[in-house]
Design goal:
Blueprint lengths: L1 H61 L1 E2 L19 E3 L6 E5 L9 H6 L2 E2 L13 E3 L22 E3 L21 E3 L14 E3 L12 H5 L7 E3 L6 E2 L14 E3 L4 E2 L15 E3 L6 E3 L12 E3 L5 E5 H5 L8 E3 L4 E3 L1
Parallel strand pairs: 3-5, 5-6, 6-7, 7-8, 8-9, 9-11, 10-12, 11-13, 13-15, 14-16, 15-17, 16-18
Antiparallel strand pairs: 1-4, 2-3
Length: about 325
């Protein structure tokens, strides 16, 4: 009897063992198929990204004229390795397009290397694009496309020396992430919001008149302002209130300002560098310049008619000054 009981227990244990093994195999099979489906879905998602990003780039290329075949690598499926393209690792999202002309100096080589044509709206589909540089190409006689204002992840936008005409689209104010904007040789006529660095050197801004300071005063986060040789004339206007809370660099040299020094700048304590050389400034140099706590660079040279007593100026603290040029003016003492 006892022997039969032991045999029964052995058979029972064997049955349970077989049953558990079958359950384990069944679970493993289910997990296998689940993992396959997840992998396939992920692969499909990535493939969809690839197809969407690639098509957007191809559509963009189709609107361009490329006489030197700079975009000859733009073929096949590996668009992340195309000239000027950088992608986010693992996703296939395009994060950077750098098509800056490699010969930025005005000559026959630059003209031969120019891209021209139209900017395709397909760029909007590159939703993760952060860096866009089309500088020193020839999109001549066409307005700056409104679509740039819809590319909400842009951090860097360089359209300098591109030949765009007309107004800077006001919807660029929607680009809350934008930190660098360069519109060299385009026309500054409208307000832009949220810009940290604004460069318009060599742009003919004569049509803007005295409104330019009020426009810029609406950029509270502006850090650097470069308006060298912009055909700005007359007096340097005073804003109705000073809204420059972060302004560090002011370059308005080589213009035709026939004005006294804008004393409202003395209220901008963040200023590090001021260049107003090669204008027609007149009147006394404000002694308060020497008390600006962060000023390191000051160039008021070649204005001819600026007056001041050097010894009085040098008695001020000039806490951080490293460069001071007041040459070719009417100074004494």
């Amino acid at each position: 009897m006892q022997e039969n009981t032991k045999k029964f227990e052995v058979l029972l244990n064997r049955g349970l063992d077989i049953y558990m093994k079958r359950i384990l195999v069944f679970i493993l099979v289910i997990l296998y198929f689940i993992s396959i489906e997840v992998a396939c879905n992920g692969h499909t998602h990535i493939n969809n990204n690839v197809q969407s990003e690639r098509k957007a780039l191809i559509d963009f290329k189709s609107g361009l004229m490329d006489p030197n075949n700079r975009l000859s690598s733009w073929k096949g499926n590996n668009y992340c390795y195309w000239h000027g393209i950088d992608c986010e690792n693992g996703t296939g999202f395009v994060v950077s397009i750098n098509l800056r002309n490699p010969y930025p100096i005005e000559n026959d080589i630059q003209n031969y290397m120019n891209l021209s044509g139209v900017i395709s709206p397909s760029l909007i589909k590159l939703k993760y694009l952060k860096y866009l540089d089309l500088s020193f190409n020839s999109f001549k006689a066409i307005p700056i496309p409104q679509l740039f204002g819809s590319m909400k992840n842009l951090i860097y936008l360089n359209l300098s020396h591109c030949g765009f005409i007309g107004e800077i689209p006001s919807n660029l104010g929607n680009l809350s992430n934008l930190q660098y904007l360069d519109f060299l040789q385009n026309i500054l006529t409208m307000m832009i919001l949220g810009i940290l660095h604004l460069s318009a050197n060599n742009v003919n801004l004569s049509m803007v008149g005295s409104q330019w300071i009020e426009v810029l005063n609406k950029l509270p986060m502006l850090i650097e302002l470069h308006l060298d040789d912009c055909n700005l004339f007359g007096s340097i206007p005073s804003p109705s209130f000073v809204n420059f809370t972060s302004l560090s660099v002011v370059v308005i040299s080589s213009n035709g300002f026939n004005s006294t020094f804008p004393e409202w700048l003395l209220n901008v304590s963040s200023l590090v560098s001021i260049d107003m050389s090669w204008n027609i400034l007149h009147g006394r140099i404000p002694l308060g310049l020497g008390e600006l706590p962060n000023l390191q660079y000051l160039d008021l040279s070649w204005n001819d008619h600026i007056e001041g007593n050097i010894s009085q100026l040098l008695r001020k603290s000039w806490k951080k000054i490293e460069f001071l040029n007041l040459g070719v003016n009417d100074l004494h003492g």
